Amino acid sequence: MQSALIRSQLRTLARTFTTAVARDVMPYDVVIVGAGPAGLSAAIRLKQLESRAGKEISVCVVEKGSEPGAHILSGCAFDPRALDELLPNWRSQDTPVRQPVTNDNFWVLTPKHKIETPLLPSMHAEDCYIISLSQTVRWLAEQAQELGVEIYPGFAAAEILYHPDGSVRGVATGDMGIGRDGEKRDSYTPGVELTGKQTIFAEGCRGSNTQKLLAKKEYGLNDNCQMQTYALGIKEVWEVDPAKHRPGMVVHTGGWPLETDAFGGSFLYHIDGGKVHLGFVVGLDYTNPYLSIYDEFQRWKTHPAIRDTLEGGQCIAYGARTITEGGLQCLPKLHMPGAMLAGDCAGTLVAARIKGTHTAMKSGMLAADAVMENYEAIMEAGETRGLDLKSYGKAFKDSWVYEEMHKYRNFRPAVVNYGFHIGSVLIAFDQWIARGKLPFTLKFKHEGDHLSLKPRMHSRKIEYPMYSALI
Questions:
Q1: What is the pLDDT of residues 72-87, one digit of tens each?
Q2: 184 phi and psi, to 5 degrees?
Q3: Cα-based angle 343, 64, 281 (whole degrees, multiple of 5)
């Protein structure tokens, strides 16, 4: 024990007195963290504005996945509004956005039956498309690269870099060639500093760098918002029997198998190519510690209305991801000295619509607009300090994204605060009668999803049966 302690202390001293290896520095005008819908839309928009204004701007996108789209997971009934603004001629191109929604349904499930109910106004999906978001992101990356955007996949932004005045000056990728014991191997390579006059963080739900920025009190990003609330979604992609395939059919369900003390639901999207995207989403502010989201998903697939589609088919892909559901009440300040937040890392998803790709894209475009509107001032500041682009916050508040988030702001907290039954009545009144114009904004009663859990001794144990391996 004593010799092991001595070796540990010697390693610590060696690291302390070892001369640091200098990191390479790659300077850009704008660095974007995350090659998702928000980040790529920002990159494309910057290059479009560069061409129109005749002002040169270098743009780099760093992406932790092995390629753009590798870490994208979504069951997506896609609203093309932002894409229409970004690339108006996309319909004439060979894109992954091919399958329009032809049939839109909402079912309330009981253990054995389905009840078809009217759709809430927020859930209508006409004019939308069922897409593979990962394929769409890859296509957006191709559009960005054709415009001159540099994309570096396979490199995570591991560290935020700051100017002496505290403003953001870029990010650094992680060091490579470090062993499990923390020691540098012969293959050690230090990370690369990607510096920018502005950095746009678009790294998705609860991005690690975004959390560091939100925690910096001097930026005050969380001063006027509530703590974010999250959900976990599990998704599968199935190849189904051609006789059961209904291209363009959208189904959302509520009710069984969840109890009324958990907020959640499911989706079943018939995309082209004989495939179906299905998934189950549960808010992480559920109360019963025995609840297993995966097991609830498996149980949901055994329902006769769902099993009928899947029997005779084959699951070909699966995954899970977290989702920001807090909406407007949890939206932080989006700008700080030298940097901006865009997309799901800021929480722009609209839970009432079960959609967030279009709002993420638009937020990225607005961030790009702010850069070009302040181009001269940004270039004048140069490499010495990062400017706080407050015009981005104003443009966001004046945009249709904010309008949509405001319209449906009471959807999520209604059920959290008042329970399933009263909350559902309030949501129905808000959307069908008040049209999203209630004279008040509900606040979440909790400040953290984990605070909703009840002690195990006060909760009902959920017994999950064994499920068929066929579905």
A1: 988 799 999 999 999 9
A2: -75, 130
A3: 50
